[in-house]
């Protein structure tokens, strides 16, 4: 009995402390966010400018779009980080653990040596002729740098390139796609971009004519899609992934949502499929993909295949198959289905987010439309050259017999096996929490657990004018320094609540994250129980 009373007292004290931290932090943030007119250099000038440019006068599509991955909770986390730097004892934790975004190198993942050696040599070709270079760089990285520089006009990585990307690099990428899929790829189908995101924007810009045009998107979805559809004035047509079957994608659900939208006068232009899934981490079976391809062909939809996590598959019973490979294996070619595949250097085992490299492979579009895509690409002149080089390296890494092959393989396999272990550890930890269920992490970089919150917590969230999962995530941040993204930012079945957590913190930090999260969750549930 004595132990029970002491334990209850400790829980009450801990709960009060966490609540105090949260409320102090929230009020502090609100105070800093509001600056009275008297503080400005010229209130009349500010008033005039506010009249010219205000929320009522800017593009309403900008206001409508949201991007939860870098939303309010991340802003709060950044403020906390500043406070810790200036006053280390300000909070009951020493660092902010960013589990909100797929940004591997910010959390300690090291870049692939071969890729960085080639980049360094391309950016400073003068050292290629120095004798010391032979001892500092591998022979195959030197050879690859020469090959790439010979493909760049003027051998200058600081110069503009062709708007689709350097032709020789597109040749390399096309060859890599052909090796991956076993079907031909045309370098003229490839548009190199600053990561996959600009490619997605480009396709939305191309396909959406008005709010009467719809794009079928998975729910939950990566907020890039909802944001891009909103910015370009279209309508997001949701289709729900089935959480009970491991976030399954059912064609019957696609048909249902397509028919519902058409009955409302919406012209559905395209279907977005994210494989492996973000934020849900599922990997589609090949038979499922064939059914999706057949659906798009029959309904005349463009298939937008987000395949940026194609290297991130963690379970032996699943394998990544590109939609290009699947459609070609079914006998469908350019005249049968319009397909756009997205790839990025930000994910996989490379994690080169800041280098902003990626591409889209565009197939099944007529020459006249392709000219329009090229025109839009030309408006941006070209994507950055380092990103272009990295995209070619990702699709053509060292091969058996190359000097760098063994070290490259060890780095790649080490990263991927560690990610698989981290995913399993976090999955198990979430499933041990009261009221939390988490599907298996088959791939990608995230877990998307469901949390059943007590009615008292839901009412507290309503009083705070927040979605319940956002309230939970903000309380978690204030108490532990762990940054998660509420499921409401990705979309979810109404009445359910989730959060997204990356598996990217370094492996030695995972136990501490699990401990912090477990202790907080118990305290939170006790606070709002009954």
UniProtKB/TrEMBL annotation:
UniProt xrefs under CDD domains: AAT_like
Pfam family, one: Aminotran_1_2
Needed cofactors: pyridoxal 5'-phosphate
Keywords, in A-Z order: Aminotransferase, Pyridoxal phosphate, Transferase
Keyword Transferase attached: yes
Presence of the UniProt keyword Transferase in the record: yes
SUPFAM superfamilies found in the cross-reference section: PLP-dependent transferases
Pathway participation: Photosynthesis; C4 acid pathway
Stretches assigned to the Aminotransferase class I/classII large domain: 154-515
GO terms assigned for molecular function: transaminase activity
Subunit structure: Homodimer.
Family, as annotated: Belongs to the class-I pyridoxal-phosphate-dependent aminotransferase family. Alanine aminotransferase subfamily.
Protein's recorded name: Alanine aminotransferase 1, mitochondrial isoform X1
């Amino acid at each position: 009995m004595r132990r029970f009373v002491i334990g209850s007292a400790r829980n009450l004290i801990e709960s009060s402390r966490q609540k105090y931290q949260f409320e102090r932090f929230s009020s502090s943030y609100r105070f800093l966010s509001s600056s009275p007119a008297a503080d400005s250099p010229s209130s009349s000038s500010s008033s005039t400018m506010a009249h010219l440019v205000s929320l009522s006068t800017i593009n309403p599509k900008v206001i409508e779009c949201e991007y939860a991955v870098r939303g309010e909770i991340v802003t709060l986390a950044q403020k906390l980080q500043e406070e810790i730097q200036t006053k280390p004892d300000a909070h009951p934790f020493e660092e902010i653990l960013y589990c909100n975004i797929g940004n591997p190198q910010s959390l300690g993942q090291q870049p692939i040596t071969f890729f960085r050696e080639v980049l360094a040599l391309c950016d400073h070709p003068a050292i290629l002729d120095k004798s010391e270079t032979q001892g500092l760089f591998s022979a195959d990285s030197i050879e690859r740098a020469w090959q790439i520089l010979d493909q760049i006009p003027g051998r200058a990585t600081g110069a503009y390139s062709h708007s689709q990307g350097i032709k020789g690099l597109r040749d390399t990428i096309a060859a890599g796609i052909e090796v991956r899929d076993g079907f031909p790829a045309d370098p003229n189908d490839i548009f190199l971009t600053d990561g996959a995101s600009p490619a997605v924007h480009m396709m939305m810009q191309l396909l959406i004519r008005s709010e009467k045009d719809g794009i079928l998107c998975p729910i939950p979805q990566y907020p890039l899609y909802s944001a891009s559809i909103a910015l370009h004035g279209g309508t997001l047509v949701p289709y729900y992934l089935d959480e009970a079957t491991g976030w399954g994608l059912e064609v019957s659900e696609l048909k249902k949502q397509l028919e519902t939208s058409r009955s409302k006068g919406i012209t559905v232009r395209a279907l977005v499929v994210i494989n492996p899934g973000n934020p849900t981490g599922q990997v589609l079976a090949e038979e499922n993909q064939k059914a999706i391809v057949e659906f798009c062909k029959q309904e005349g939809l463009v298939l937008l295949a987000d395949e940026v996590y194609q290297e991130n598959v963690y379970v032996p019973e699943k394998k990544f198959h590109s939609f290009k490979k699947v459609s070609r294996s079914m006998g469908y070619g350019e005249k049968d289905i319009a397909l756009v595949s997205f790839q990025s250097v930000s994910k996989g085992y490379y994690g080169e987010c800041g280098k902003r490299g990626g591409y889209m492979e565009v197939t099944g579009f007529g020459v006249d439309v392709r000219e329009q895509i090229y025109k839009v690409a030309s408006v941006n002149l070209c994507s950055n050259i380092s990103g272009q080089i990295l995209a070619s390296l990702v699709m053509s890494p060292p091969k058996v017999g190359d000097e760098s092959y063994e070290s490259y393989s060890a780095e790649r396999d080490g990263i991927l096996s560690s990610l698989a272990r981290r995913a399993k550890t976090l999955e198990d930890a979430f499933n041990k929490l009261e009221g939390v269920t988490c599907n298996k992490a088959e791939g990608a970089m995230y877990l998307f657990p469901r949390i059943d919150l007590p009615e008292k917590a839901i009412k507290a969230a309503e009083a705070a004018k927040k979605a319940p999962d956002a309230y939970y995530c903000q309380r978690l941040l204030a108490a532990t320094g762990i940054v998660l993204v509420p499921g409401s930012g990705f979309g979810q079945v109404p009445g359910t609540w989730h959060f997204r957590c990356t598996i990217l913190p370094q492996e030695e930090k995972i136990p501490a994250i699990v401990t912090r999260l477990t202790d907080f969750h118990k305290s939170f549930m006790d606070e709002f129980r009954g």
